[in-house]
Amino acid sequence: MAKIVDPDQLTLQVNGTATTQEMFIDTDKKTIQCRIAGNLDDDSPGSTSGVTGQCAYSFLKEEWRTNTTLNKFKFPIKAIYEAKFIMQYGWQFADQQTRDLFRDAGFQEIDGRENACILSLGSQYDNTQQADYQQVTGFNQNTTDFDKTGPLNEMVMVYDGGSSDYRSYFKAFLRGWNRTFADYNLLVEQGFSALTYIAYRLPLANSNDIKNQGTTQAYIDGANEPYNNMELQYYKGAGFDTAAAQSYSVDDVVQDGAGRWARCTTAGTVTTPGGGWSSFGGTSVWESYPGERQIGSAYYAFNREVQYNGAGTKPNKDEIYKFCQNALTKSTNINDDPDTDSYGTVNGEVAVRLAYYVGDVLHSWPGVNFADFNSNITNQIILHDITVDGGGLDSEDVPETSTERSYPFTAAGMFQFSANLVNETAADTLFRMYYLNIHEQTRTDIAVTSASGTNATLTTTAGDFNLSSGDYFIVSGFTTNDVNNGVKVATGTPSDTSVDYTDALGRTQIDESAGDSVKVEEQPYDTASAIVVNDNSGSPIQGQVTSASVSFDFDYDGNTQGGRTAATDAKVVIVAQGLEDSEWVSAPFTITRTTGLTFPVNAPDERTYLNPA
């Protein structure tokens, strides 16, 4: 059966004994019951069963108008809108099954209980896929299964009206074996301060994981090389800034003047930060940061590591990936702590992801290092570090800023378009690749001077501005005067260390001294200076979506569009859209020095576009 949206598909029994009726009301108890009967079922997936809150509300309104027994009582439900309802006048749900049958809406009950409706956008490929959710923050927590498998549409209690309040955290997970993984932190991603009794839509979907086939979890968990000698290590740390003359706390991590990383073991001061950490003056005590790793001639910081500690053949990239995916399905602690760093418990099912593929290149999740792997895969591994002065770690200990650390290859790859884009009439589609920006830098010596109305000058003592008059750029990071952040237009004759500008929004600018970690993005996407990326032959990477896979190439070493620095990773944004079948979508990626890149471009289904002509 399908999800019921038409009140005409419902029948009602008032008092007495219900038989085939979908709904039952007991006026003495003031209860409303939805029943698995007649046209109503509670099968998986929730997206194609049950009854919408709007439909049930509309049906009861009709019944209250014609039923003389019901008309003696106050109406039980107040509608805020079609996705938010309040039970009133002492009326309540008869049982949990009733709650489990409602779709597309949240409810507040008379005891204060609040139920949010969780809907997934997109298909989970088949109805056997089990999604889970976490309502209390922390890696030492576990997940709860959603009531039904497959695409989601069901109510979850976020507040019981008393001491159990889960409105401040909700994260959903989709981690089926042999499937791609997905997770979604609802409040963070959608900018909510607290959840309430409404419907929330989450882009939670998966597909067959072509990189994780042919190996069972039992085999990985067994006494089989290399898996039985692979371990996970989590490292404590905070800050990850350049060493400065200031006070530090235990576990603060800094990069010293020699480019090495150190961790504070005794809180105190640093008075001479310019050299190696062992020569820091002051009262603080330091040790070599155990998450420091050398790549090429430089040292980088990581706070998680996949290690091989055996004597056999070291793991290849597929074995590293499968080991990571298997760990993230566990309800138990996956922090093996071989280096005894005492980070604490990390239950796998709520842990942040560890690895992912882009084409045939294995990437670490930001902050994750792969250690002791087979040397034959060196050029097929890309690591993502904790970038110095990049803002440190977020609430899940993931770097706020991470930089790819890769090995040389020629850039080439493939766009993978979602089926709704492919199924559109080709002439109604468009895809185009833009640079996210041509150049960016984050520094603490950037200041605003000579402010006069909407005009001012951005200065740096030793920066590297690459702007011309008329170029747009974005500034972020000033904390005292927010008007100094945002989109600016270069004027006059910019230099490497100074650029006159006008605020694009016409806001009055204010002089502001250096000191904040300020980021400047030059000729960025989402401004009039956005630049379409050229392919290897110099033609724009753009066109119509004519097939599911469209290849591209890129002159990694020679492309200097807009003043881009050649032989550096290119941050790009792919935009695509159709008309009737697919919404506009943008997807950020990074073109690295590699082949086999795969950029999935998945557009949401279009549900609103209409051109009756």
**Total beta-strand segments:** 45
The biggest sheet, with number of strands, parallel, antiparallel or mixed sense and barrel status, is: 7 strands, antiparallel
Number of helices: 6
Strand order of the largest sheet: 34-40-37-38-39-36-35
Instruction: Flag low-confidence runs.
Output: none
What does this protein look like?
It is built from six helices and 45 strands. The chain folds into five domains: about 1-210, no CATH class; about 215-235 and about 305-400, no CATH class; about 240-290, no CATH class; about 410-435 and about 535-600, Immunoglobulin-like; about 440-520, Elongation Factor Tu (Ef-tu), domain 3, CATH 2.40.30.20. The protein has about 625 residues and is mainly beta. The model has no long low-confidence stretch (mean pLDDT about 95). Strands 34-40-37-38-39-36-35 form a seven-stranded antiparallel beta sheet, with no helix packed on it.
Descriptors for this entry?
mainly beta, six-stranded mixed β-sheet
